[in-house]
Amino acid sequence: MDAFIKEFPERFIQVGIAEANMMGIAAGLTIGGKIPYTGTFANFSTGRVYDQIRQSIAYSGKNVKICASHAGLTLGEDGATHQILEDIGLMRMLPGMTVIVPCDYNQTKAATLAIADYEGPVYLRFGRPKVANFTADNQPFEIGKAQLLAVGSDISIFATGHMVWNAIEAARLLAAEGISAEVINIHTIKPLDEKAVIQSVAKTGCAVTAEEHQIFGGLGDLIAGVLARHQPVPMEMVAVNDSFGESGKPEELLVKYGIDTPHLVAAAKKQSAGRSKSKCC
Amino acid sequence: MASIDELKNIASQIRRDALRMVHGCQSGHPGGSLGCADFFTALYFEIMEHKTDFTMDGLNEDLFFLSNGHISPVWYSTLSRAGYFEPKEMYSFRKLNTRLQGHPTTHEHLPGIRVASGSLGQGMSVAIGAALAKKYNADKHIVYSLHGDGELEEGQNWEAIMSAAHLKVDNLVSTIDWNGQQIDGPTEKVMALGDLNEKFRVFGWDTLQLDGNNMEELVSGLKKAKSMTGKGKPIAILMKTVMGYPVDFMMGSHEWHGIAPNDAQLAKALEQLPVTMGDY
User: Fold this and answer.
1) From B134, which residue of chain A is nearest by alpha-carbon distance?
2) Closest residue in B to A17 (Cα–Cα)
3) Model ipTM value
4) B144-192: per-residue pLDDT in tens?
5) With the C-alpha atoms ordered A116, A117, A118, A120, is the resulting torsion angle positive or negative?
6) Partner of A44 at 20 to 30 A CA spacing, among A90, A109, B95, B214?
């Protein structure tokens, strides 16, 4: 945002600590052909202004790009008041809302550019901590197209946001134990690339989802729904289990709330073991 | 340029339309619709430069936003009588598959509407955004908005009021329908509004006050508001109206905020409102 302000000071509108007004002003700017991007914490980009987004943006079909930082537990020390874990669910329930959760800096940059060319409201979620930047620089970003990051045959890991890096790490640890994990980055929650999900589990026969979000309403629910309708297989969700967060270091919180790499590895081993059992019996 | 008498005649028809719409589906908000019919008439038939060949972006024309969307009947009638759509479509108000939804929406693509409203307190922010877009586009036209007085209890308005002054949105004319009534009773009893004129002024707005049920005063006041634009401040019009005006048994009470007249009540009301443009 700082770079944008420096380059285009006349196109940056400071609205203060007034998120509801910000959403309305953004909706109004589209009337006249502008493409507004809003910027604040994910908590104040969603829950605090849900009715404004619902009526003035989503229902009104406005071309607003809601860019939400500091999502999830990894906000860390600020604690549960600011660690929203419900935003993916809130936003994906809105008719017509596109929901994007990129996994690293390069992908966030690519998504930020790509959504300008897409006509319609978008929710773009990202986090605060420094995480591995592992996807390609200057990559194309295709809204609604899942990204296959590792090919595997024993289990499908569907991850979103920061948890994609954990999924890659988990796949490496699983490989050392002879388990071949397929890792798919679901950077677009809505519209979901259902075909990629179905094709992967048709091959692996089981799935684990990973997200920095409540277990209700997020990626896990979404994948479970697709699998139940099209390709029922055993699956497990690695997500925050119906709980608020708390203060702490990001990595400590991921451990305490059961969404760090070891938890992901354990969930994957459990599922792939069950799959082997069901195969042999 | 319409004469004052011609405007009064149009307002009479708009009031008839609004009441007949609410009666037709036995649902809707007649009180505020009647009270604001003169304002809508003056705005659309005398003050605004607007195009009935509707485009969402509304470039090079004045725009209007209705924040208190529940008075949709008066807006629908105004839009129809101004030429945005055929008057016969008013039959469909609040009925299944209608473009004339209970509260205004872009979702059904009714010409003249640029954002959904109904959940209160959101319209001024949107109007500010549209006014800023006009500035970016070097479009010298004005953005008008209307808000209920009770609606000012919603906190988002005060975020918007503060920001409009800070951002020098001087192409915005926001009118408050100061009828002193809201769904639960008189505003003074529910949540006292205090000195609204002073409140807007200390927030950095220019203000003017007028009688919203006096066509001469409305036209001259809205023209004056127009002349006050472009001077660094947003403009607030504090418009005194009488809810239900001028139907004798509907006036001055919150009782007719959101109930439909029955057959006898409609007939009695319509006797007081001459047909001037032909009923739909």
Assistant:
1) A32
2) B159
3) 0.96
4) 999 999 999 999 999 999 999 999 999 999 999 999 999 999 999 999 9
5) positive
6) A109
